[in-house]
Design a protein that fits this description.
Largest sheet: none
Shape: globular
Structural class: mainly alpha
Number of helices: 16
Distance between the termini: 73 Å
Strand content: under 5%
Number of domains: 1
Order of helices and strands: HHHHHHHHHHHHHHHH
């Protein structure tokens, strides 16, 4: 009697290398926000490929949110709501407050930038972006806190449904209809990311059913190809269409899940050959939030003196490298501080 070979699930691949994929995503985002162009190759096609890859580097956010949806569903399955929210606050607020308040103080004291008390409250409560206040920093941190807040509702809708895929389609349809309200509004960049996070929740909920068999492979490759074709079409439209109607982001509903699976598969098959490199990616992924915050706010002030000394390409490369290093350091410092704060106070012995 032949032994039945068990087929791994798509979830098992992605969950095993979730942090590594996040490490790729944060580098992609840093590259997108930089002026680092890899256009020095002799082959024009290679230069075009890297330039296109940089142009769509915002997709690193969608990749990260898809993976966050997977992780959040797991967290909600294991923890009470109070523990879940406590963990989310611990993950976001310390790094956000530490860096943003430091930068705000520097802007006011050294640069003479006026920051009102209302704007400070907006930063502290992570509501300033939604109320469209000035001097609020990066939209992503505001959105991730918001999506973590409503995630229990989205996860419950999927978990309690007998037809989860149909429920997912319904949520995506409602989400996409809601985004139309935010056309021509700067909030669109955040609101339009709700669907990809929801897809992550769904994949996690169906962890035992989505197999990495021939059907799974064909589905993921078809999604990736369809996403790339639609992205190429969208990129040929004018900037007004891309930004005002959010056409930058729709293709990544197809690209992000399939790309995450393909990256995880490659990591799994090559883990022995690139063990140390993947360990670095894993560390970057765990510190992705801190790396982003450092890159966006703190680092530009600390290495600005380098800009007139070195070429723009070298300056941008240094900025990316230092963002990663300082972000990782900040992540582990905050982790240790939280660990020390949570240790029960040991009463001194009285002799």
């Amino acid at each position: 009697m032949e032994k039945k070979i068990e087929v791994r699930t798509i979830y098992s691949y992605i969950s095993a290398y979730r942090a590594e994929i996040m490490g790729v995503a944060i580098v992609w985002v840093l590259w997108f926000h930089s002026f680092l162009h890899l256009d020095f190759f002799r082959a024009v096609g290679v230069n075009t490929f890297f330039e296109t890859l940089k142009t769509v580097g915002y997709g690193g956010v969608d990749l990260f949110l898809f993976l966050s949806g997977i992780g959040i569903y797991n967290s909600l399955s294991k923890n009470t709501l109070s523990v879940y929210y406590k963990n989310r606050i611990k993950r976001i607020v310390p790094a956000w407050w530490l860096v943003l308040l430091a930068v705000t103080f520097y802007n006011v004291s050294k640069l003479g930038i006026t920051v009102t008390p209302i704007e400070v409250i907006g930063i502290m409560t992570l509501t300033g972006f939604w109320s469209q206040l000035d001097n609020q920093g990066n939209w992503y941190v505001y959105f991730i806190m918001f999506i973590y807040l409503i995630a229990p509702v989205l996860a419950a809708l999927i978990r309690e449904s007998k037809r989860r895929f149909l429920t997912l389609m319904e949520i995506l349809l409602v989400s996409l209809l809601i985004t139309s309200v935010f056309w021509h509004n700067h909030l669109l960049i955040a609101v339009e990311r709700i669907p990809i996070f929801t897809v992550g929740l769904y994949v996690s909920s169906e962890r035992d059913k989505l197999k990495a068999n021939s059907v799974g492979w064909i589905t993921n490759i078809a999604m990736l190809i369809a996403g790339i074709i639609s992205m190429r079409y969208c990129l040929n439209l004018g900037d007004d269409m891309l930004f005002e109607y959010g056409l930058w982001w729709y293709p990544f509903l197809l690209i992000a899940p399939s790309l995450a699976f393909l990256l995880a598969f490659v990591f799994d098959k090559t883990k022995k050959a690139f063990l140390h490199f993947y360990a670095l990616l894993r560390t970057q992924g765990k510190a992705a939030l801190e790396i982003l915050i450092i890159s966006e706010f703190l680092l530009p002030y600390s290495i600005v003196w380098l800009e007139p000394i070195v070429s723009l390409r070298i300056y941008m490369l240094i900025k990316i490298i230092f963002s990663i290093i300082l972000g990782i350091i900040l992540h582990f410092v905050i982790d240790k501080m939280l660990e020390l704060c949570e240790k029960p106070m040991v009463k001194a012995k009285v002799f």
